[in-house]
Model the fold of this input.
Amino acid sequence: MLDGDEHQRIALTHLLQQLDDLTLVASCATAEEALTFFRQGGQADILFVAADIDGLNVLDTLTLLRSQSELIVLVSQEHHATQALELPAVLSLQYPVSLVLLRQAVQRVREQLLAATLGTVPEQMPRYTSALFVKSGSRLLRLDMADIVCIEAVDDYASVVTERQKLLVSSNLKLLAAQLPMGQFQRIHRSYIVNVDHLISIEENTVNLTKGIRLPIGKSYRDSFYRYLIRV
Done:
């Protein structure tokens, strides 16, 4: 756990102690403490990181921490929501964190860890959120997951196509992918993520989506995408 606020660390520690099969191995107040923990041989499967830690640039810190653990849960205050959207976390929570939401987050992270270990996609990936918050220009917008048709990489940005509009958002494809429900959204190409609920058909390694959208399936993504479709 990495959080500069002692009261928030205590509160989150209390909640974590109520979860089965989860052990808190380190509670750090600064990014340097967390990095020192890993440099000295410490290991952690899940990292809980506050969005407003002091000392180092948060994005740089998370990039460093990601080399130690791919599974990061970002915990932030509501007024840090815009900043949190730009950080490479597996998923995000907001203070005050409830035990129910924390349990759901841990369960989801565990399933992602299992999927990564087995090289498979869980058959029934739970959907804990129905909306995605994105920054477009000076606006922070709420998009219903069900309305998102596909997402395309555009340099360091991403184009999100919904049933009603097309938006250029201030986030790259990797960061958006970390916020999407596994299963419902599938990476089919290094530049494309599709919502399988909008999938109509597949012809010659090209997906046909609603709104008349046709996208290629990248060679390196074909096997995992087809395996997922067969399982569902």
